[in-house]
Specification:
By secondary structure, the protein is of the alpha/beta class. Helix content is 34%, strand content 15%.
């Protein structure tokens, strides 16, 4: 019996995708072997990779003047690769610090260039996004970086902080990519680790506007040089073939579900269902400012920290797993990515109701 897996990442995957992968695990397309066992340079795998890119372009309506890269190193690798590709020594870049992941990104960027923190949510304990009119932009910055969704704290931008001066916008979409439609053309670069809404871990996808490609520093590792990887079809070295294959299956599943407009409406409904219960329960609480709450990662607390272990035990008994909050913040966190069905959210609420009745 499968559980409802609320892990923040690696996260639950769509059941039809897992079932297809299971059927094809020993014999992919009649080859008598797994997709993990064939050459990444074979015509069959290259065709798989090409189709996955085409499906992703269709889902996100990626403009033709953007390169789509399937790379390794995760989003954390891109924390270094982005300044290496987009800046020269001494350049200034702007970063919005709204939580743990944006802080990690700006800390890494400081190794390569000057970082100006345009906004810092520390005054709200990173429970709110600083008002846009307070942001201190740098004229002529090479790019503005932000994290649309902070996985750990459950804080999300519901608009796009575009600069009037045309400075390219760079965004870490790891935990909200493919959760709803986005206008890719408003960004210079989008990157996303796969292990939330794309597929299993081991892959990071980069969408980068062509005018930002070809500027890498001489010391940039070849596998993170956007121009070289684009020229080689993301195969300068052996790519994570199984993760790429699984991502392709997820893209097919998203298209079969009706695309990102349909999936986005479903995600909005799931989030509303859970937040409405938390707000009206009189027992549970969510610390994030309502206008900045995440659709994907919903943290919540019980009245006393001593009840947390009892809640986890009750949830596990009900077939609900991985609800522990991040070690840095505690409490509970329900990650309700694309593959989490409405039934999973309903089962969580039923468990929360029962627990509140018994401990309220």
């Amino acid at each position: 019996m499968r559980v409802f897996n609320f892990a923040a990442g690696p996260a639950t995957l769509p059941l039809p995708v897992l079932e297809q992968a299971q059927r094809e695990l020993l014999d992919w397309q009649g080859d008598g072997m797994s997709v993990m066992e064939i050459s990444h340079r074979s015509k069959r795998f290259v065709a798989l990779a090409t189709e996955a890119e085409q499906d992703l372009r269709e889902l996100l309506n990626v403009p033709s003047n953007y390169k789509v890269l399937f790379l390794q190193g995760g989003a954390s690798g891109m924390f270094s690769a982005i300044p290496q590709n987009l800046t020269a020594a001494g350049d200034v870049v702007d970063y919005a610090n709204t939580g743990a992941w944006s802080k990690k990104g700006l800390t890494e960027a400081k190794k390569y260039c000057k970082v100006n923190v345009v906004a810092d949510g520390k005054d709200s304990n990173y429970f709110a996004i600083p008002a846009r009119d307070s942001w201190a932009a740098t004229p002529g910055a090479r790019y503005l970086h932000y994290t649309p969704n902070e996985t750990i704290s459950g804080l999300e931008f519901h608009d796009i902080p575009v600069r009037a001066d045309g400075v390219p916008l760079v965004a870490d979409f790891s935990s909200s990519i493919l959760s709803r439609p986005i206008d890719v053309s408003r960004f210079g670069l989008i990157y996303a680790g796969a292990q939330k809404n794309i597929g299993p871990s081991g892959l990071v996808i980069v969408l980068v506007r062509e005018d930002l490609v070809g500027q890498a520093r001489a010391e940039t590792p070849s596998i993170w040089d956007f121009a070289q990887m684009a020229a080689d079809g993301s195969m300068s070295n052996t790519p994570p073939t199984f993760s790429w294959y699984m991502a392709g299956l997820v893209f097919k599943w998203l298209k079969a579900e009706g695309g990102l407009a349909v999936v986005g409406a479903r995600n909005a409904a799931k989030a509303k269902l859970l937040y409405d219960y938390i707000d009206g329960s009189g027992f549970y609480a969510n610390p994030i400012e309502k206008s900045s709450r995440s659709w994907m990662n919903v943290p919540f607390t019980v009245p006393e920290a001593a009840l947390e272990k009892a809640f986890m035990a009750a949830a596990l008994a009900a077939g609900l797993t991985n609800l522990e909050g991040h070690r840095s913040v505690g409490g509970m966190r329900a990650s309700i990515y694309n593959a989490m069905p409405v039934a999973g959210v309903q089962a969580l609420i039923a468990c929360m109701q029962d627990f509140a009745r018994r401990h309220g």
